[in-house]
Automatic annotation (TrEMBL):
<dbReference type="Pfam" id="PF03938">
    <property type="entry name" value="OmpH"/>
</dbReference>
<comment type="similarity">
    <text>Belongs to the Skp family.</text>
</comment>
<dbReference type="GO" id="GO:0051082">
    <property type="term" value="F:unfolded protein binding"/>
</dbReference>
<dbReference type="InterPro" id="IPR005632">
    <property type="entry name" value="Chaperone_Skp"/>
</dbReference>
<dbReference type="InterPro" id="IPR024930">
    <property type="entry name" value="Skp_dom_sf"/>
</dbReference>
<keyword id="KW-0732">Signal</keyword>
<dbReference type="GO" id="GO:0050821">
    <property type="term" value="P:protein stabilization"/>
</dbReference>
<dbReference type="GO" id="GO:0005829">
    <property type="term" value="C:cytosol"/>
</dbReference>
<feature type="signal peptide">
    <location>
        <begin position="1"/>
        <end position="19"/>
    </location>
</feature>
<protein>
    <submittedName>
        <fullName>OmpH family outer membrane protein</fullName>
    </submittedName>
</protein>
Amino acid sequence: MKKYIFIAFLVCTSFGAFAQKFAYVDTEYILKHLPEYKSALTQLDVASKQWQEQVDRNFGELDKMYKSYQADQVLLTDDMRKRRENEIIEKEKQAKEFQRQKFGPDGDLFQSRTKLIKPIQDKVSDAIKQIAKAKYLDFIFDKSSEATMMIYASSSYDVSNDVITKLGYKPGTVTN
């Protein structure tokens, strides 16, 4: 009896396994083959180096100002000391603000990266979707990232609306 149950289990899982078709891609490998991606990375690298050099210069000037202040501090009057301290504080604020503008989460580097790389990534994504549909694939995973990521899934496997219904809500009515 156990033998028949085991065989039935194997048959069921075999049919279930063949019902869905999986594939994977390596987006890093794909992107390395695209000249426009290499060009975009070069542009980003050049801009990043220029901005980093300016950041380094700004903080170098700040360091010189601070060392000069420390050397002169004993000779300065209270007013002169406060003025120099304020200049150093203002220079530090400017240096940090420049660094944030260039390298911050919404900085120029991030925006340039989005502007240059996103269209290329969209192009790759569209090609992946076209291949998935042409080969009747249900899921495509990206093996290039540390955590395996699904980059394509057939909408026929999306059970989000079923979950919403099961929770007692109506799909398509988003609450704020």
